[in-house]
Design goal:
Structural class: mainly beta
Order of helices and strands: EEEEEEEEEEE
Shape: globular
Helix content: under 10%
Largest sheet: 7 strands, mixed
Number of strands: 11
Strand content: over 45%
């Protein structure tokens, strides 16, 4: 069973950058598809980005495409989310998630496809 811990959130001005990290323990990291989700106050959780087990394939929500980059280091059991050109609408709690099961999907964009979740880290973008 994997345990996930996010870090790197904070307060940043619009146009700035942040890099989130998610450290995994308690499982074989390379066996998990990894994803980032976010939830803003009063809104549903939404998919942000996902990366396959080997790191060879990534997929992004349209709202972050071209601004965010997901990556992973299987030697360090860590997945990252580099966020550039941040906008106030990116303000949310960002959570990483690990998928152990094979869902049959080409891209893991649904919360139900993930087995383990971190507690989240707050990202606030001021205008």
């Amino acid at each position: 069973q994997a345990q996930l811990e996010e870090s790197g959130g904070g307060l940043v001005q619009a146009g700035g950058s942040l890099r989130l990290s998610c450290a995994a323990s308690g499982g074989t990291f390379r066996n998990y598809n990894m994803g980032w989700f976010r939830q803003a106050p009063g809104k549903d959780r939404e998919f942000v980005a996902t990366i396959t087990r080997s790191g060879g394939i990534t997929y992004y929500a349209d709202s972050v495409k071209g601004r965010f980059t997901i990556s992973r280091d299987n030697a360090k059991n860590t997945v990252y989310l580099q966020m550039n050109s941040l906008k106030p609408e990116d303000t949310a709690v960002y959570c990483c998630a690990a998928a152990w099961r094979y869902s049959g999907s080409a891209y893991y964009t649904r919360s139900s496809e993930y087995d383990y979740w971190g507690q989240g880290t707050q990202v606030t973008v001021s205008s």
